[in-house]
Every structure is written in C-alpha cells, then in structure tokens.
Amino acid sequence: IAVTDSKVATASVLPEFHPARPCYLQDVRQVTVSSTGKLGLVNGQGTFKVTWDGAGLPMTEANIHSVGSDFRSWPAMVKWDVGAVYEVAVTGINIHPLHFHVNPFQISDMPSATYGDGYFKIGDFHDTLLLSDLTGADQIKIRMNTDHFTGKMFVHCHILAHEDMGMMNLIDLVGTEGAAYAGTEKCFSKVFDSTKDVNYTAFSPPVASAAHGAHKTVLGPRMLLSTALWVGFHLAR
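Above: the chain's sequence. Below: its structure in token form.
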C-alpha cells in the first residue's frame, strides 16, 4: 500500500453540538445562591472527619451507635432546601477525594482556571473530585443544585479507609419532594416526575419534511434513567 501526502488537504471544521441539559446539570455559576458555607475534609492525630463551618464529629461506627442504632440517627451537619442552589468552599481535596451522593456539583472557582493538564476546569460537573495539585490550605468553591430529592445526603472522602475511620457526614435536604430550582424552568426536569411512560422529544431524530409531522420518542422510566445517566456523564466534560 502506497500512502502519498497530497499537501493540499484541509482539516474539516467539526460542527458544535449543544444538547439540552437536564435540570440537575444546568450551569449555576451566575445564579443567586440560597446560602454559603465551608466544608472541610479534615484529618490529624488519627482523626478523620467532615466539618461544616469548622464543626463536625468523626462519623465512626462507635460514634454512630452512641446516638442511635444506625446512620439514620446521625444528626445532619446542615439543612438545605430542595430546589435551591448552594455554594460551598471546600478544603482538603488535595489528598481526600470529595464525593456527594444524590446530586452532582459544579466547580465555580479555583485558585487556577485549570488543573491536571487542563482536565479539571471551572464550570465542570463532578460527583467525586480530587485535585492533587492543590495544597491543604487551598480552597475551591463548588455549587450544588438540590434538585427534586429530599432526605439525608451523604458527603464523604472516597478513600474507603478514611470513610470508615469517620470522614463522612450528612446534609439534610428538606422541603417538598420533587421541587426544582426556579432558574432551570426551561430544562427537561419534568420527565423525571412521572413513574409512567413519557412522550419526550429531546432525543428525537430531525424531521425530514413538514409533511411527515413531528417525531416523538416514548421512553419508559428505566430508559429515561439510563439516558439521563449517559447524558450526565458526557456533559460533565
């Protein structure tokens, strides 16, 4: 096989694609937040804990059983309203991977615009984040849209040995189950409100002509969840 360089070829310009985002992945860097606070992933002298505004006890098995029979008895370190946006200044993620259950979070500020050779950027969404380029004194800011779900939400170090030694805690999401942030009304949050099949058009193929009418795709709950997870994963980058 002979390969010859034509020296005249030009690179094609790829079209940009901007998919509709689900409500929990809306850009919330410019919105008004309900409140702010400081979250620390703290260890020292054999103690591992998650703190809120400097306060917090290690959530060890012994401490959990000192207040009740299981983790559901553990008092949340803070309460957040569902359907709101909160900003958190985080320290300790240079050695402790920060992980939240239920809701992803968006990086809203860092000491530098990027880390990890440009992989981590302001505006990115994550559910787990470790920035080893930082120091222990450095902080980043994240924002979370507390979309739809109420109840106690875990936050912990994703090194399981550290979690087992107490570096986890709870945030209590309170209010009306299913509430969505008002600033995201134009996103497609409502498809997640139903336990039935939903007529949904966001992933429909383009219409070939007006005579064919609008295409619709009927998605059941399982397909909706799978689609949402796939879209969420790819939009995070």
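Residues 189-237 have pLDDT under 50 and may be disordered.
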